[in-house]
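Subject: Sanity check before I submit

Could someone independently write out the structure tokens for this chain? I want to compare against mine line by line before I put it in a report. The sequence has 893 residues.
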Amino acid sequence: MRWTRRLAYWLRFRSREKDLREELTLHRELLANELERRGLTPNDAAWTARSTMGNETYMREEARGVWLSPTLDALLQDWRYAWRGLRRSPSFALVAIVSLALGIGANTAIFGLIHALLLARLPIPRAAELVELRRDLGAKGTDDRFSRDEFDALVAGPLPLTMFASSSGTLEIDGVTINTSLDAVNGRYFNLLGIRPQRGRLLSARDDADAAPIVVVTDRFWRRRMNADPSALGRIVKIDGQPFTVVGIAPAGFASLRFPALAELIVPYRAAIALGVIGPNDPRRIGVTIVGRRRGSQSIDGARIDLAALWNRCCADGQLVAAPRGQRSVSSQLALVDVSRGVPHPKLDLRGQYGRILFALMAGVGILLLAACANVANLLLARNSARAGELALRLALGGSRARLVMQLAIESLQLSLGGALLGVAFAYWGTTVLVRVGIGDLADLFSTSHAPNGSVIAFAAIVSVVSGLIFGVVPSVRVMRGDLVTPLKQGGRRTRTRHGALDRGLVALQAALALLLVTGATLLVQTLQNLQRTDLGFDPRERLALAVETRHTAYAREGMTARMADEMLRRVRAIPGVESAAFGTLVPVYGGRSVSDNVSVRGQSGASDVDTWFTAISPGYFTALGISLLAGRDVGPPVLGPAPRLRDVVVNDRFVRRFFPQRDPVGQLFEDSDAGDTLVTENRIVGVVASAKFTDLRAAAEPMYFVPLSDERWPFLELVVRPSASASSVGPAMSRAIAAVAPGIAQGDPSLLSSSIDDALSRERVSAGLAMLFGIIAMSLVAVGLYGVMLYQVTERTTEIGIRIALGARSGSVVGLVLRQSLGVVGAGITAGIPLSMLAGRAVATQLYGVTAFSVSALVVATTSLIVVAIVATLVPVRRAVSVDPLTALRAD
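---
Independent answer below. Compare away.
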């Protein structure tokens, strides 16, 4: 209760102070009235009453001690005094707070991305208890796909289990057919996860047992595709041509157990199988992911032991799901892994793609924050030097050095809190820009809101307190060890201090950190430029690409894919402004599907049984992409019906160097087959093309061969068009031509291949842009710090400069005096920063391309930039030094 009353007093400070003043005034007036009744005059009575009661300020302090402890009262006084001091120096406060806000905001923004990508748990109750079952195959790693029979055997065990299978398909809604992604789940899925619907209901065990054609849509799908329509429940949508009824909307933030969550629809597993929504034709190849929930105190090893006996009976010895024909059974152990942060996606590894980059950026913004703290420490040193007389007077009047340090610490804390508040706003804006403009792959992680959550705000608060301690310790040490009596002996003259080395040292530290950031940014910019200039093997300029999905359509079921593609190409090529057009199952950088087969060449034991990628194309594919034909001819027309046992193919020059280094490849034969598959296809090379980079722009092109498009095996097609007219006018005509041949077929939006390349380089572009931004901010902090120090040094040396000028020194020598001092500070920072820059280059070496970790050109750019910044920051101090009037300077001294 005592602390409650004290807190109430603190919250009601102004009203309490007013009441206290009124009460003391009343007591003084009552005493004066009593003295008047005793015969004193009103003036004498008032004077006597005031002298009798004593010092009113001291009495108020004594009275406040009843309500609040003296320590807290002193803290409140120091807080109010520091606040008034900052209000009297708005320019100082603004520069300090903005400097800190840039550092704290950058740290908060990057931490927000790291939290969402690497640290945040799934938005479900007790997510830490979730585990995924996997086969431990020893040296071959693990396998996370199980058959439905294996799940049915394991679900009888002591650990609560559920399962799901992820897939993609087409969705017809409001007369429009679009591509979509879905999860097919069993009836225990939502019950085990413990989540509740936002609207309607979720799937139950009865729904799965009855194979009910119902669907639960995610919040993101409901808002984007259904415009958050409250009447969406009960609507009929068609998934791969099959009608499903919407019965519920999942809670906001939840879409799937996978990370990243790509599912838009959630359907019963048995219904998906019965209606052909998921899985290939071979039911043995339909794999499910099994997830369980541990008891609160149960360890992962304990849960694995509970399932071990059942596992050994049903699943330890068996055939892998989706194993090629002829694959032998495998012997495996049970493994359980923590999936509280989501089941890893097998193809989209955002954590692997962005994790290292984000941690490198986190190191960069940490260095930026150190530079900001050094800058604010310099500002505080300059400010406290100007307040030396005030601090000395407080010490002379009985104040302790500890109380002065507390006063400065509170002032530092106010600056850091102000920087944190403004920094959180910067972080909100910066994160929004990053995910919307720069890192598009992470946009879905922030689809609901970019506002920092509790963890991010707590991080910002911790960073602000730590930064306040960092930049506040230097002025505090000066107060504890400095001479605060000498300023009282100086009278009204300017106080000369002997702490210039400390000020210059802080600026040198900023210069070293800035050199580190600018060098790293230059390396990343050079990497981006090298990737943009790399030889792709094709011409992406003004090429349009469009995805078409035939899976689960009549064309795929009836084996008419090649016929359909041929008719579509005929119509697209007839569009005015189209020079060439072709279909392929894979388009460089843009995407699509390719297949890995086992290639063998007779008589070459070293080249046998090598996995090599191949893709199906239509004639004109290389012309449309601008891939050079080096020898032979193009592939033949589409194969109507099953593919022949002998087919004519085109290979790239990497394939030739791998398999036919000493022979003319045209006319040569090679065989391919799935590993363990008894069906072998013989291929005859009819042409050789230049190698193109299809996936990773950093890696060398892979050996690849191209087969004619056939009616089987290719449900995903990519149309590539080379227009002679404006691409914006050709795009809509392409979509209309495809829809005319196959009404209702799912197709993507036409997009430029150059845009796909930009998207592929988004990580490099963002990392380079952010690193350069951090470097510019660090340079700005160096400029501000150097400007303040040099201006202060010129002011301190006014008399010396005046004597030099009076003795005949020219303006050039005065300019050289100030510039030498400025460049000496920056030079010290450069000397210290070069080894740090070399370490930074090694830290980001894995992110570089076409440039070494130690780049002389990057160091030259950074060093030159720092020297230019130093010269610009010293212009005003130089001008003031040159304009010193000797007579005025000597008279003032």
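---
OP: Matches mine. For the report I'm noting this point. Residues 492-498 have pLDDT under 50 and may be disordered.
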